[in-house]
Specification:
disordered C terminus; 334 residues; 9 strands; 7-stranded mixed sheet; two-stranded antiparallel sheet; HAD_sf; binds magnesium ion; hydrolase; globular; Pase_PHOSPHO-typ; magnesium; single chain; 45% helix
Length: 334
């Protein structure tokens, strides 16, 4: 259709077609009743832009008002986002790592993991292990490549927010995220507090006030309490929780019923959920390894958002307009 028209004029043609189509639909009641007006215009402009190869245009009016979808994806960190426990990994630097890990496990069994690790971390540093050496150990932790790619794609989608809720600490988590190039995709980290004092790294509890009645979480962090505060922030269209451990249980059962719980198969969270059939909860989807976790995230978060975005012209908020074709995002700037 545009053969023979200079490429510089293609944008003008696309815009004229979109305005013309909108006018035709607006002044033709039968057609208007038959067609979804926004979809008709969107499809026409999309096809024209695809034909011309234009990926950026400078203007479009603000008549499209569909609200962006809001998806919250929550990751536990140890053994969920990464394949190891970061606290235990760092204790591998101890001169007697078996004893250090045994003491930490005993503390965990008594719901005092945070205090136990704070004590082991202090011993470790008194042995002469510096923060630089601890950082080097953390940088060794690699996130699975397929999961990393999925996080890149999810993080680039409008309306998807990725957060971490973990019983590790914010310094360990930030260090691992940065070294894996994931820090810019994670919008919030809630974890125990790491502070440097006198050249030593100290870990302190995240929660310092008592948990609400009914919580069975350790005093330092109640994931259910954090999840409820996140759910109160906005109206999320979908919430997905990824976890593995017993500390994830209260976070997971707070996922709204239309959400998903991605539980590491046959690990404590999964077993607890299986034993709690009487609790009304979101659908539980087990995953065996990080590649399966990545595929579940793609299927349950990425694909629904892409399908929605493909149908909507969204000029709300960011005033950026996107559409997606075969999984590839193309941004149209306003
Ligand atoms: Mg975990």
């Amino acid at each position: 259709m545009l053969n023979g028209i200079p490429r510089s004029c293609h944008l003008l043609v696309a815009l004229l077609l979109s305005v013309g189509m909108e006018a035709a639909v607006a002044f033709n009641p039968p057609l208007s009743s038959m067609l979804n007006r926004r979809e008709a215009i969107s499809d026409l402009v999309t096809k024209t832009l695809q034909y011309t190869g234009i990926t950026q245009i400078p203007i479009l009016t603000g008549r499209q008002t569909a609200a962006p979808m809001r998806n919250l994806v929550v990751f536990d960190f140890d053994h969920t986002l990464i394949g190891v426990d970061s606290d235990e990994h760092v204790l591998g630097l101890s001169s007697d790592k078996d004893a250090a890990k045994r003491r930490l496990a005993e503390a965990g069994a008594a719901k005092r993991w945070c205090e136990g690790f704070a004590s082991e971390l202090e011993c470790l540093q008194r042995e002469g292990v510096t923060m630089d050496r601890i950082k080097e150990a953390l940088v060794e932790i690699k996130v699975d490549e397929e999961l990393k790619e999925t996080i890149h794609r999810l993080g680039n989608l409008d309306g998807v927010e990725l957060r971490i809720l973990s019983d590790a600490n914010n310094w360990f988590i930030s260090t691992v995220l940065q070294s894996n190039g994931l820090d810019k995709y994670i919008t919030k980290i809630v974890s125990n507090v790491a502070e440097v004092d006198g050249g030593f790294l100290h870990v302190k509890p995240y929660h310092t006030s008592p948990h609400p009645e009914g919580s069975s979480s350790p005093a330092n962090l109640c994931k259910g309490r954090v999840m409820r505060s996140w759910l109160d922030e906005v109206r999320w269209d979908q919430v997905v929780y990824c976890g593995d451990g017993p500390g994830d249980f209260e976070g997971a059962v707070n996922v709204p019923l239309n959400g998903k719980i991605l539980a590491r198969k046959d690990w404590p969270l999964h077993r607890l959920l299986e034993r709690s059939k009487e609790v009304k909860m979101a659908q539980v989807l087990p995953w065996q390894d990080h590649k399966e976790l990545a595929r579940l995230l793609s299927k349950n978060v990425e694909m629904p958002v892409l399908a929605m975005q493909r149908k909507q012209w969204d000029l709300a908020g960011s005033r950026s307009l996107r559409w997606h074709e075969e999984g590839k995002a193309v941004r149209v700037m306003t």
